[in-house]
Amino acid sequence: MAAIYSLYIINKSGGLIFYKDYGSAGRMDTNDSLRVASLWHSMHAISQQLSPISGCSGTELLEADTFDLHCFQSLTGTKFFVVCEPGTLHMEGLLKYIYELYTDYVLKNPFYEMEMPIRCELFDINLVQAVQKDRVALLGR
């Protein structure tokens, strides 16, 4: 069973620009993945406004019985979140590394238009390697 079920990248306006499914059970169709991304974007924005702590950046972790959702928001407002097995550790580091891949391979791509869906082969290749490396590290512990 995969430690990471899926990865989402949402632009600052709440549009889903990247989705990758890593689990074999419970695969979602395109409409469902768009709904999840939109729902998370809204919940994240509401949590920023309702937080009693000033300067709160929003919800970073949502724990449920069957999954955990870890979120990293960049300074530009782009959100990266993974849905993974409950109790999976070190997702913050993985999300920050995915953000580095995004800046290196997507944002520096002269053919990429900001806020549009990500279609970058080098990003996909390096993302697969990062997730595989993370799975190996998790299984080794």
Description:
- This protein is of the alpha+beta class and 141 residues long.
- It has a single domain (4-140), classed as Beta-Lactamase, CATH 3.30.450.
- It has three helices and five strands.
- The chain has helices at residues 30-50, 91-107, 121-140; strands at residues 4-10, 16-21, 61-63, 68-73, 79-84.
- It has a five-stranded antiparallel sheet.
- The longest helix is centred in the N-terminal third of the chain and has 21 residues, at 30-50.
- The protein is globular.
- 25% of the residues are buried.
- Part of the multisubunit transport protein particle (TRAPP) complex.
- Keywords: Endoplasmic reticulum, ER-Golgi transport, Golgi apparatus, Transport.
- One of its GO terms (cellular component) is endoplasmic reticulum.
- InterPro entries: Longin-like_dom_sf, TRAPPC.
Throw out a few tags for this protein:
141 residues; alpha+beta; Beta-Lactamase; globular; endoplasmic reticulum
